[in-house]
Amino acid sequence: MAASDQIPEPEFDYEALPSNYGLGRNMLAGAFAGIAEHSVMYPVDLLKTRMQILHPSTGGLYTGLTNAVSTIYRIEGWRTLWKGVSSVIVGAGPAHAVYFGTYEIVKELAGGNVDDGHHPLAAALSGASATIASDALMNPFDVIKQRMQVHGSVHKSLMQCAKTVYKTEGLQAFYLSYPTTLCMTVPFTATQFVAYESISKFMNPKQDYDPFTHCMAGGLAGAFAAGITTPLDVVKTLLQTRGLAESEEIRSARGLWNAASIIKKRFGWGGFLRGMRPRIISTMPSTAICWTSYEMAKAYFKEQPLD
Predict the structure, then answer these.
(1) CA–CA separation, 229 vs 233, rounded Å?
(2) What are the two backbone dihedrals, phi and then psi, of residue 287, each rounded to the nearest 5 degrees?
(3) How many CB atoms lie within 10 A of CB 85?
């Protein structure tokens, strides 16, 4: 057969999933991404939580990120940086499976995979829908995580912490911060997904599988989204750790606006920026790892034979 008559190999359309591509594979890719992201960056997340506590115990007072690391290492030992990691490992897998599964479904329904064009509205809607679904599952695990991260926490395990919180504060303690979490994560995720899609298409117009592009786009998108949503993260931390506070005002905080007023009264507007630096430092590599892991797993499953 002449060279001109040869049938070209079909182009590998990485982004567009085939109609018989199972949702389970997307969810498995998402679970892999979530566990990888949260496990690797957990120590920085612990530092962020401790720096956001309004009135920490004496041993939990830090002058900055470097001081926090050295103080924890010197007094409590390096293992403390991983205290509570079991909560995110158990919760992050299922939550991220739901997260990316919802993302792909809504993106398809919203027309985000119609052509090679840029679809920011579809990306934003997909991201917002994904975070609403996944946070409903992850919020209790996040509460447990932060209760175990706080300096002086008496909680030794995931189950012991969960039982104690439920016994002393009731089921509502696991979801008191959920509305605030959504107020933070919906704009965070919508912003992140739009930024990720935009940066990815700019860096990689052909939308081929490119780990470098996924890593850079994920990191930059996450850093930008983390910075603008830090104030709500501070409010969320107050609500999720209020049961450990010595202040009666903080212990009785009810909802987003009440918590925000407490922060404003005690620390001024600057109080809403507490922990911004470690939040950005942790989020940038976290989202880079998350997107790179997800796209890698998705590409792997895409090449596997479908049953």
Answers:
(1) 7
(2) -70, -30
(3) 20
Amino acid present at 111: G
Q: Cα–Cα distance between 132 and 178 in angstroms, integer?
A: 10
Please check whether residue 306 is in contact with residue 22, taking contact to mean a CB–CB distance below 8 angstroms: yes
One-letter amino acid of 69 = V
Taken in order 139, 141, 144, 146, the sign of the CA dihedral is negative
Mean pLDDT, to the nearest integer, of 158-183?
A: 92
Residue 22: per-residue pLDDT: 62
| Tens-place pLDDT, residues 112-156 | 777 666 677 887 888 888 889 999 999 999 999 999 998 888 898
Cβ pair 264, 271 in contact under 8 A: yes
Nearest by Cα to 78 from 37, 57, 47, 38: 47
Q: How far out from the chain centre does Cα 201 lie? A: 23
**End-to-end Cα separation, the chain, in angstroms:** 34
Q: Are 217 and 144 in contact (CB under 8 A)?
A: no
Secondary structure (3-state) at 192: helix
